[in-house]
Amino acid sequence: MENDYFRSKRFLALLAKYEECQKSGVTCIISSDEYADIAEYYQMHDADMQRAEEAIDTAIGLYPGSTDPLAFKARICLMTGDDTEGARQWAAQIEDKSDLEYCYVMAEILVVEGRYDEAEDFLRKRQEEIDDEDDAIDFVYDVAMLLGDYDLMDDAERWIQEIKGKDDIYYKEVMARVLIGRGQFEEGERMLNTLLDDDPFAAKWWNMMANSQYRRGAYRESIESCEYALALDPNDDEAVFNKANSLFQLGNYEEAADYYTRYMGLQPEDETGELFIGICLLSEDRAVEAEQHLKKAEKLAERTQHNLFSIYQELAFTESRLGKLDDALYYLDKTDTLDCDHNEMLVVRGHILLEHGHLDEARECFSEAVTKSNASPHIFLRIAVSTYDNGYLPLAQKMFTSLLEIVDTDTWNDGYSYLAACYHERGNRKEWLKYLKMAVEKNPLEAKNVLADFFPANMDPQDYCRYALENEK
Predict the structure, then answer these.
(1) Tens of pLDDT along 311-326?
(2) Least CB-packed of 19, 34, 181, 455 within 10 Å?
(3) pLDDT at residue 44 greater than cutoff 90
(4) d(Cα 153, Cα 280) in Å, to the nearest integer?
């Protein structure tokens, strides 16, 4: 279901009719497919699963055995906890087992269960039963998109290659997704550009472009793509959220918070917006306000359990900033039962303890994290960053130096900015300039985040070395 349909006069009239019936307390007499469209709209655009399921349950009551509402219920089971047994029970109630939607749901269940070969066999058997050429192309496209949704990019490509015309819009769109999913961002963007050349008014492709640019760190380009999408629809929630993310990465926390707030107006039930508003505010040392938004995010997340790990972590940082150590540790304790990297949580605990002067307890947490992670360089990096952030510069310098001695410096890009900062703050000009150059070359985003205070506001990291040579004696 494309976003364009949800913006169409036809759908908006349907939605208005349904909501008027809801207000009046009468049952809206529309088709089961239309009920499914309304539910999908609530799910996608309002992140309001309660209203979505109300619509779907009404549809199932009016039209027992109908395909789309039951398929929707099955997918909800998969989305909210990989409940494949519940999904099977809903799918089993679909009367028309020849309906392709039933086929897609059953294949999706098999994929979630990790039974990829069985999913392939099931889909191939159904493919053999399709006679109409256009239907066959649609089937291949739908299967490739389904596999792409589960990051099975090789499988998605294998299916889409069956479309004979490589200029076909379906082929280009799926291949763009596959390339971007593999991290071949520039190749995927070239494919998207061919689509946009033919149809520059397709917001979904501008959003795909923005996502790709964001993932490769081209945040200003991503913002530009978002603005094209927003010119087509100022209420495009995906474009609003993507722009907020890029603004955040550029360190423009105030404007990013404005866009996350705008996103919350479009998706009031999505805790992600409140989470990032809180992070932006904390980045601006507005911890009291950050706490309010993060607690709103926690309340919203209680229903879905999504993002709880990140919310608890940010609440821990916030409470620590407010001087409330016990509250900070309380939120870290709440991550113990969640599916997250518990070694990283040990580092966070150590960081907060160090913030409050509990050196011995912090050292114990750091030591435990290193041991349990088998001396992971990423864990060691986070401990070194914590040491730097808490002002232990001689120790931080030793840790970053040791880290860069054990990693493959041809592929490792983190930590150089911190080592440069250590030398700068300790007055070692030669080593400062050496590691500044390496930092900018290897990780300009880290360089901006760590070293920006040493340079004029809004200076591009690529200009740091020139400025340092010209202005520092």
Answers:
(1) 999 999 999 999 999 9
(2) 19
(3) no
(4) 34
Distance CA 114, CA 360 (A): 45
The yes-or-no verdict on residue 309 having pLDDT over 70 is yes
Q: What residue type is assigned to position 138 of the chain? A: D
387 and 396 Cβ atoms separated by less than 8 Å = yes
Nearest to 119 by CA among 129, 130, 105, 132: 105
3-state secondary structure the chain: CCHHHHCCHHHHHHHHHHHHHHHHCCCCCCCHHHHHHHHHHHHHHCCCHHHHHHHHHHHHHHCCCCHHHHHHHHHHHHHCCCCHHHHHHHHHCCCCCCCHHHHHHHHHHHHHCCCHHHHHHHHHHHHCCCCCHHHHHHHHHHHHHHHHHCCCHHHHHHHHCCCCCCCCHHHHHHHHHHHHHCCCHHHHHHHHHHHHHHCCCCHHHHHHHHHHHHHCCCHHHHHHHHHHHHHHCCCCHHHHHHHHHHHHHCCCHHHHHHHHHHHHHHCCCCHHHHHHHHHHHHHCCCHHHHHHHHHHHHHHHHHHCCCHHHHHHHHHHHHHHCCCHHHHHHHHHCCCCCCCCHHHHHHHHHHHHHHCCCHHHHHHHHHHHHHHCCCCHHHHHHHHHHHHHCCCHHHHHHHHHHHHHHCCCCCCCCCHHHHHHHHHHCCCHHHHHHHHHHHHHHCHHHHHHHHHHHCCCCCCHHHHHHHHHHHCC
Does residue 250 surpass a pLDDT of 70? yes
Give the predicted TM-score (pTM) of the model. Answer: 0.84
